Please model this.
Amino acid sequence: MSGLGMDSGTESGGTGTVLTPARFVWPYGGTSVYLSGSFTGWSEHWPMMQVEGCPTVYQTICSLPPGYHQYKFIVDGEWRYDEHQPYVTGNYGIVNTVLLTREPDHNSAVLSPRMTCGSNMDVDNDAFQRVVRVSESTSHEPLPRISEADLEVSRQRISVFLSTHMAYELLPDSGKVFALDVELPVKQAFHILYEQGISTAPLWDFSKGQFVGVLSALDFILIMRELGSRGSNLTEEELETHTISAWKEAKLYLTKQTIEHGKLYSRRLVQVGPDENLKDVSLKILQNRVATVPVTHSTSDDGSYPQLLFLASLSEVLKLVCRYFRHSASSLPILQLPICSLPLGTWVPKIGDSSQQPLAILKLNSPLSAALTLFVQAEVSSIPIVDDNDSLLDVYSRSDITALAKDKIYTHINLDEMTIHQALQLGHESYSSYGTTGQRCHMCLRSDSLHKVMERLAKPGVRRVVIVEAGSKRVEGIISLGDVFRFLLS
Model:
């Protein structure tokens, strides 16, 4: 959470007023962050600087006279306040407040003890240790429980919100969407995914004049397993001319088919229209076990080609939910509960408990083939990578596989000999070469509230958070976007 602390020492202004240095912190990310308040006349905006090693944390130190002050943050042009700090309703809406005494508090923390700032894995060690101390002090407190009535009220309010908001509300102000021709060679298609930094693209069939499917990282995984098998009928040379259409017919469709009255049917493309409500969009994503759905629109009934507007995902839907309920979180009782008290996510089974689904975890020296097998057979989208003590080191995700398209690496590697560590290194090099600086691994504690986890999952590019033990970072579980929506909409 954000914090405001006092640095030791005071200074005198020209009028003899004793000023107190105060540090303001905004730890929730953003591209540009400014501070404004009663001490600036609400007209000046003071820039806040990013904390080194913590890309989501911004701070500034101001020398202010003792007394009562009000302030807010301007994040990417939007006025924001920190609901985890004291706040009131004033002339400028909801504002944070602080009372500065004449003598600085030498015992105040520069950052709030609960704050976690982002390093390579979104938790730096110093801040994490502060989290540990708070967690240890509350670890023996009984877990809060929620009544069935409060649970039903929360779910009902979210359901009503999603049912009354439409897919077009997710449409970004600007952006681009890539679609691939089904007659494109498979090898070229995966190079495009890699070069554009995306893991999914809709497929367009010019002969039919419609979108017919999606090419994803899972296709790349299946092809790599095919190339790596001894009885493979698909050689690297054939990838030069082997089209997406041929691959889909020969391989992926056969793995996605259903049997009805002894006849085989290929699964149709899942897509939505801009006027479909967000509850239906979310349920389609969950029921079809896909990461995104194309939002398409036909302007007329004269047979003209449909327009591909954008790809909708649960992340954008959750962002809208969080924004709507941010200032009325009390209307959803479940948001304040710790995640460990909710039937949510996949957890490491307790000793002797065979009823829980095991959590897929691998070591750095595990072969890449083990990860690909889990992606396909266990149908997981990411795997926590741990050390010998099961402490979290990184996460290997299904989308990371496209990094192997660089320089056709996938054509001359042995999946049983290449380790997860080597694959991660290739991925890190790829992200750096394309200027990607986003955090790869996001963690939380079992004591964190559902609201905090939802806010983190609503950030762009975040699809799951790993639950770790305070102090050791031992993996305890994982919560995905799908887990949250299945819980909220059940």
